[in-house]
Design brief:
By secondary structure, the chain is an alpha/beta fold. About 40% of the residues lie in helices and about 15% in strands.
Length: about 425
Amino acid sequence: MPHTRPHRIAMISMHTSPLASPGVGDAGGMNVYLAEVSRQLAAAGNEVDIFTRRTSAELADRQRLATGVQVHNIGGSEIASKEKNDLPEVLQNFTAGVLERAAEIPELRYDAVHAHYWLSGPVAQAVAPIWNVPIIASMHTLGAAKNLARQQPPEPAHRLRVEQQLVEAADVLVANTPAERQDLMLLTGADPERVLVVPPGVNHESFHPGDQWAARMQLGLPVDRRILLFVGRLQPLKGPDIVIRSVAELVRERPSLRNEVHLVVCGGPSGVGPGYLQELHELAMATGIADLVEFRPPATASRLVDLYRSADVLLMPSRSESFGLVALESQAAGTPVVAARVGGLTSSVAPGSSGLLVDGHDPVDWAAAIDRLLAQPELLAALTAGGLAHASQFDWSLTAAGLAAGYRRAIAGNGVDVVESANYE
């Protein structure tokens, strides 16, 4: 990151904290993103305050994530008790809490406010004129894009209005990929000169290749099976049902594989209630592969890297995806990916080089893609090597450098040229 005057950045992440464990409730790739980029920004000399809602009375008002990074837990029981879909009802309370907390910080002066996800948009728009700072906005997922994926139930009209207002108010919009930039322009009419493409990264100290047999022993997984892996929040948008149906189709077409494959589904229900996990169990039974499927709760980072290493293939049939951090982590750990050709997955996976992209979500097509890899060890080996090379181009320090450039331009009040990372060339 180039040497410039350090800045103090206020990040708003109303609905979820960077200290939350990914894969639990509403925590996912965005939580990892917040934690990693704030650490990198602070390592370059900046200061970062992250304002999020308090989810438990036991949480301290302030928690240090790293040197130079403070997480501020805002609100009382009236906010903590709300489900994600009900959070718009307490936006005013949360905003007041952010302003009160900021007023307690001696000699406070922020240089910019960065809103993460649509729920944080109204908060950033309320505090920006009071602090006299520009607004940077990262959607992470765009409601209109999710609706195009036929998300059920569809995203509410209120969300679409709030996102549109944030697009119009932001001095800089950060897109994870060129595909997301296109969505912002086509679906919200965003000014292309205010959209900065900054790809997420991967923590290569945590995610790197290791011994597959040792990883399986550590996790208690069968060492004599072909391990297929799904990692993510358990919700229809992520497609765990497609994974189960695809493996069922695979063993129907190739009965000999019934004694060779083992599917691991790692994650917790998100936004759908605990009954969805039971539905997936019932689907595995109904399709005749309950004996081949193992459900595991969300994993810590150290366990997650072992899961990636243990697998032969990671399956990611998302119906919509702004980036697909799981795909990048898996490749960095030495496991190729079969992913849906949607959204950011077209950037996080290099088709034919680090993995395969499947058009649509037909289990027949997915079974064929899985079978192709399992039947061709030389292709699997080539994709493993290609995945390592592809993932090596992504690093959180580069993400932080891209964000810092966006902050500088917003602070200076200059127009933002569209910058597309060499990662996509």
